[in-house]
Amino acid sequence: MSSSPVIRCGTAVRTHADVRTRAARLATALATMGVEHGDRYAIVLRNDIAFVEATLAGAAIGAVPVPVNWHWTGDDLAYLLADSGSKVVLVHTDLLPAVEAVLPAGAAVIEVGVPDDVAAAHGFPARS
User: Fold this and answer.
1) Cα gap 49→52, rounded to integer Å
2) Predicted confidence (pLDDT) at residue 55 exceeds the cutoff of 90
C-alpha cells in the first residue's frame, strides 16, 4: 500500500510513503521553529500536494493549520495572519512578497517552490 499513489497534482504523484515522509520532515521543521501542540500556522498555498503535506504535518504535532485564500493581499491577508496568531507561514514563492508586506512581528516564513504544473497553469516561472 505504501508504494501506491495516494495523491496527484498535474504530473506530480506521491505515494503513501512519500507523503508520510515529507509531512514528518515538515512537522519536525515546524517544531524546530517553535510550533507546538495547539499553535497555529498559516498555509498560503494553492491547491497542490504541498498543501496536503502541510496540513498533515501540523496534525502530526497537534498544531492547527490556518488555510489562507492565496488571492488575498493587503488588509485581508494582514488581518488573518495577525488574528490567527500564526507562528509560521508556509507560502508559495510567487506569493511571498504579499505575505512579507504584512507578516506579523515574530512570525517566520517557510518558502515553498511552485510546482511546474501549477506555475504553467498560472503563467509564471516555476521554482524548484
Assistant:
1) 5
2) yes
Q: How many whole angstroms separate alpha carbon 84 and alpha carbon 66?
A: 7
Cell 515529507, residue located? 22
Point out which residues pair with 109 in neighbouring strands. Answer: 89
**Cα-Cα end-to-end distance for the chain:** 28
DSSP 8-state secondary structure symbol assigned to residue 107: -
List the beta bridge partners of residue 41: 65, 88
Closest CA to 87 of 69, 108, 66: 108
The Cβ of residue 97 has, within 10 Å, a number of other Cβ atoms equal to 10
Residue (of 128, 75, 82) closest to 107 by Cα position: 82
pTM: 0.90
Integer CA distances (angstroms), 43 to 1, 3, 22, 115, in order: 28, 27, 16, 16
Residue 60 CA to residue 120 CA, distance in Å, equals: 32
Mean pLDDT of 79-83: 97
Residue 81 pLDDT greater than 60, yes or no = yes
